[in-house]
Task: inverse folding
């Protein structure tokens, strides 16, 4: 198989496969493959009505790392092609971020070939857009109260601005400040990688179909959030950053990215918690409608 680096010009090609067969996973999306290249080294090959994705930066001498092939053809033949590709490099196959459905399929169609284990850190939090936008009922009463209290407290002082390309410099200025203020409590290298990811995403703001909002208080930027569609039914919230000196600003960011930018989508993907205990607790508190469990399938 021939794999090549992904470029911005591949958006339509990758969208054709990921939007139909990516199961609304944030990992199975063009924006992940393209803007997280520094982390994953994603390379693609499109053939036989399948999109094949190699995670080049995760490969080792003994293991080639792929996403599960996405397409509408013969899935068993597609997996066999990946096995052949890995074996031609004297390596074994490792599938990352495999969904429950595909993990069960691998066990059934390739018995004894793969060792499959769940990776809870990769689980994705998916919500009905109406629930995040409206915070209905008793289940969301405390969050609804906090958000309404914030709006009352900063009434007349808070403004929400829909992001355009003209706001990119403002966002990056805030992000640099946020990065400096949070380096001691976070992984500095990870924060700097994220900053470069944000720069790349905003550079291709239109091409990636990004939308989002900025929160200003007294005319000063205190938070921003943006996302992009990953299918016709699902919107991926990519980045959320707020000044925690303003209690509950994240309540507004969580709610209004959906309310103002994503109500045309049935589902909202709020991505993984990557094993961070505080982040996991916060994400679970929003009671996801779907916790998309993920698995790693390694050839034995």
Result:
């Amino acid at each position: 198989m021939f794999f090549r680096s992904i470029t911005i010009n591949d958006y339509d090609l990758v969208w054709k496969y990921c939007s139909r067969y990516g199961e609304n996973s944030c990992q199975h999306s063009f924006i992940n493959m393209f803007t997280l290249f520094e982390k994953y080294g994603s390379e693609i090959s499109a053939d036989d009505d399948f999109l094949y994705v190699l995670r080049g930066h995760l490969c080792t001498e003994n293991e080639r790392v792929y996403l599960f092939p996405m397409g509408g053809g013969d899935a068993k033949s597609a997996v066999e092609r990946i096995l052949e590709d890995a074996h031609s490099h004297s390596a074994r196959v490792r599938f990352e971020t495999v969904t429950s459905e595909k993990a069960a399929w691998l066990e059934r169609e390739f018995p004894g070939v793969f060792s499959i284990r769940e990776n809870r850190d990769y689980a994705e939090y998916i919500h009905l857009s109406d629930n995040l936008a409206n915070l209905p009922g008793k289940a969301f009463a405390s969050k609804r109260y906090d958000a309404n209290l914030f709006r009352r407290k900063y009434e007349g002082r808070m403004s929400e601005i829909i992001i355009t390309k003209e706001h990119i410099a403002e966002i990056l200025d805030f992000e640099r400040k946020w990065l400096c203020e949070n380096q001691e409590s976070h992984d500095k290298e990870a924060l700097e990688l994220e900053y470069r990811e944000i720069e790349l995403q905003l550079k291709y703001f239109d091409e990636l179909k990004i939308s989002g909002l900025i929160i200003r208080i007294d005319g000063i930027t205190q938070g921003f959030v943006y996302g992009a569609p990953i299918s016709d039914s699902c919107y991926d919230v990519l980045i959320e950053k707020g000044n925690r000196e303003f209690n509950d600003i994240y309540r507004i960011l969580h709610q209004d990215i959906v309310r103002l930018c994503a109500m045309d989508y049935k589902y909202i993907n709020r991505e993984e918690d990557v094993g961070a205990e505080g982040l996991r607790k916060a994400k679970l508190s929003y009671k996801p409608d779907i916790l998309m469990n993920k698995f790693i399938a390694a050839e034995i």
Q: What stands out?
A: The domain at 4-122 is CATH 3.40.630.30 (Aminopeptidase). The chain has two domains: 4-122, 124-271. The mean pLDDT is 96.
